[in-house]
Write a structure and sequence with these properties.
Pfam families: AHSA1 (PF08327)
Number of helices: 3
Family: Belongs to the AHA1 family.
CATH class of the domain at 4-33 and 82-154: Alpha Beta
Domain Activator of Hsp90 ATPase homologue 1/2-like C-terminal: 12-152
Radius of gyration: 15 Å
Number of strands: 7
Organism: Nocardia jiangxiensis
Structural class: alpha+beta
Distance between the termini: 56 Å
Largest sheet: 7 strands, antiparallel
Shape: globular
Helix content: 10-25%
Protein name: SRPBCC family protein
Strand order of the largest sheet: 1-7-6-5-4-3-2
Length: 160
């Protein structure tokens, strides 16, 4: 049976700016890794049919063993759809010898303009069974919080 995980967040930035952070290499490296991880993009091809390879490193691998190695998750992400400024669809495959992490997970980033800001909802479908649902939803929420902090800090006027 297919599993769906989701999380949403209101972000104080316009939809075009949010969309830009979803398709910019440096931005993704800054905000996508959830708390307790850092990320580095190895390969980058920002177009439909292109994608990226991200190495996520656990800051405390003892309490958070990785899917690829003791300290890492390596994920190949394809850009299945780029629809500015409304939606980005990723197809993610984890590099792992453990079959419970196999398969292609689809992550759809919906961007909705609201009177209060931009609502970003992430829906992950076909989540591999080895990924704990509560931990995954917390990870998505953490990435969204990082995205909000990243974009909202960028909008602050500088002193000077």
């Amino acid at each position: 049976m297919s599993r769906t995980d989701r999380a949403s967040r209101l972000i104080a930035a316009p939809p075009e700016i949010v969309y830009g952070a979803l398709v910019d290499r440096e931005s993704l490296e800054a905000w996508l890794p959830p708390d307790g991880m850092r990320g580095r993009i190895q390969r980058w091809d920002p177009r439909p049919g292109g994608g990226f390879r991200m190495i996520l490193t656990y800051l405390d691998p003892v309490n958070s063993p990785g899917k690829t190695s003791d300290a890492t998750d390596v994920v190949d992400v394809g850009f299945a759809e780029l629809m500015p400024p409304e939606r980005v669809v990723h197809r993610a495959v984890f590099e792992s010898e453990d079959p419970s992490y196999s398969g292609t997970m689809t992550m759809t980033w919906h961007i909705t303009d609201t009177a209060e800001g931009t609502e970003v909802t992430v829906t992950a479908t076909d989540v591999p069974p080895g990924i704990d649902q509560a931990a995954h939803e917390a990870g998505i929420a953490s990435s969204l919080a990082n995205l909000a902090s990243y974009l909202e800090a960028a909008d602050r006027p500088t002193a000077g």
